[in-house]
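S1.2 Input.
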Amino acid sequence: MKKNIVKILIVLFLCFIEVNSLNAQSLIDLEKRYEQLNSQYEKESNIRDSLKNIFSIKTEQIDAEKKMKNPDNDKIVDLMAGSVSISKKIDDQNKKINRFEKDLENVKQQLHKLYTSQVDSLEYLKKTGKEDENKLDEEIFLVTEKNLLVAPRIPSLSFNPEKILKIDLNKTKDVKEKALYKEYLNNALNEVNKLLEKVSLQSSEVDQVVTLQTKTKKFLEEAELESNVIIQNQRNNASDKNLVPNFNEGTGVTQSRDLASNVQTYQLILRQLDIEQLSKTNLKWEISSDNVYMNLDVKEYQKLLKEVKKRLQEFKLVLANKIGSAK
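S1.3 Output.
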């Protein structure tokens, strides 16, 4: 009986090692795939931008020629023909880019699951007390940092909050109209709940990054480590202001696009909920569509997430109150 139990434990252990090995290989393959897709996406986006510039120049030339006292109609026709051709190329390029975006989102979702599983395993090891806690904290920090950058894309609110605030179900006498308004409010509430869930998850991950950064920095300062480890400390300090995963050397800039995109959406959500409130949040930076590759300060990102979470919670209460107070 004891021999059978030992055999079962050995089989389970070997299976565990095999699964971990497969997960590690899968993770490496996915990270490489993510790199390739990002690189290709960047290349195709640059091609589209060049085409748009050419299209803009041709449009200006057409307008300029039309404004001439004696416009050259043949020249205008040629320019317009060229513009149509470029416009088609832009459309084709957009379709190609959309395909890359879908592939990127798919890979990001898979990476997100693997990173989350990795963090859970590391947290479990910490609880057992069998591994060096500081080493585990550093690993958790690096994986969580990567996980933040492949977080699912955040959608902006599909409804108009101002219109929501104007709805009063008790003042609506028509039964059908009241039912439609109530459905509209319920849909908005469901959307806010889903968004809050995503924001809360990201906020929790950012909190963990900030905590681990502080803890690691304090440990390194107290330990008075040798010069080769101090270099590592400098790299960690640099990451305080730069959320870039180390999949491969020299690729961090393009990988910040996904996070920057979410930052833009969060800022948009704040404006949607209360445009005046944004100026009261004391956020030190904003990211425009022309400047998505700037370094992101993790503590400022933490502050932004907390503000979005707070505003969504406030709006959720307003929606719940409107639905609940209906007679």
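S1.4 Remarks. The domain at 1-131 is CATH 1.10.287 (Helix Hairpins).
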